[in-house]
Write a structure and sequence with these properties.
With about 270 residues, the chain is an alpha/beta fold. It is built from twelve helices and eight strands. About 45% of the residues lie in helices and about 15% in strands. α2 runs parallel beside α4, α2 crosses α12 and α9 runs parallel beside α10. The mean pLDDT is about 95. The structure holds ligand LLZGTKA7. Keywords: Decarboxylase, Lyase, Pyrimidine biosynthesis.
Length: about 270
């Protein structure tokens, strides 16, 4: 999917919601556990009930690969039922020496046909650029993550006398553009989201951390929204585990709808 198609979907749905698919066998409703492929059955119902409100889905690969070969099969089945106009993100946090990154890119972009993949910047240009060689595919580079440990490296000054996340954002703009590269920016990072927006005025941000991690959607929009919105705000547990009963998919729909309605108001406010 290209950038204008993604922007058009955001306009059309008045939404910048990314639904995170983190299917945990220990958390999915009991009645699904006897299904032949419980993880797939769970994600299928979630996708069916939330697709009206979502512009992106983000399966976190850990929940699938933890189940071995069967988990990879479930992942492919989930990918196949996501409507084609909805952006897909493989949250795989890959990145390795060039020849290996090239094969990771092939795995997620060709074998599986994801629109995008999260990539760690730590190994530098040759680990990231192989992912940027695919038409209409995206790298989502970890810049300022939502977890507490992000303060161990990302916000401390590097050899250029600025926080490491500044250098990641500045340097990586030599590799990719707003047409094929986004940044992960945690919803929990408050005003720092505004610093990232100053450094990358046109890039999309994937913003995890609302819902279970307590980040504020209003704050994300205040500091991170630009003229095209350029935000994909993710919620995983807050949506998919809204109920663990037979009504789980309807409960997920309600949570997704609530977030979409809030987003619609924020988009409208930003337009004025
Ligand atoms: O900085 C980051 C990068 C990725 N994530 C991932 O997003 C979801 C968040 O899940 P919630 O249940 O909404 O907290 C999860 O898959 C993380 O691995 C992140 O949280 N922060």
């Amino acid at each position: 999917m290209n950038r204008s198609q993604l922007i058009a979907q955001i306009e059309y749905k008045s939404s910048f919601l990314c639904v995170g698919l983190d299917p945990d066998l220990d958390k999915i409703p009991a009645h699904l556990k006897s299904e032949p492929d419980p993880i797939f059955s769970f994600c299928k119902e979630i996708v069916e009930e939330t697709a009206d409100y979502a512009v992106a889905y983000k399966p976190n690969i850990a929940f699938f690969e933890a189940l071995g070969p069967k988990g990879w099969e479930s992942l492919q089945k989930v990918l196949d039922i996501i409507p084609k106009e909805i952006f897909t993100i493989a949250d795989a946090k890959r990145g390795d020496i060039g020849n290996t990154s090239k094969l990771y890119a092939k795995a997620f972009f060709e074998s599986m046909d994801f629109d995008s993949i999260t990539v760690a910047p730590y190994m530098g240009a040759d680990s990231v650029t192989p992912f940027l060689e695919f038409e209409n595919k995206w790298v989502i580079l970890l810049a300022l993550t939502s977890n507490a440990g992000s303060q161990d490296f990302q916000t401390i000054e590097d050899g250029h006398c600025k926080p490491l996340f500044h250098s990641v954002i500045e340097k990586s703009q030599e590799w990719g553009s707003p047409e094929n590269m986004m940044y992960v920016v945690g919803a929990t990072r408050g005003e720092l989201i505004g610093e990232v927006r100053t450094l990358a005025p046109d890039h999309f941000f994937l913003v995890p951390g609302v819902g279970a991690q307590g980040g504020s959607l209003a704050e994300v929009a205040r500091y991170g929204m630009n003229a095209n919105c350029s935000l994909l705000v993710n919620s995983s547990r807050g949506i998919i585990y809204a109920s663990n009963g037979k009504d789980f998919a309807k409960a997920a729909r309600n949570e997704a709808k609530k977030l979409q309605e809030e987003m619609s108001v924020l988009l409208e406010k930003h337009r004025k």
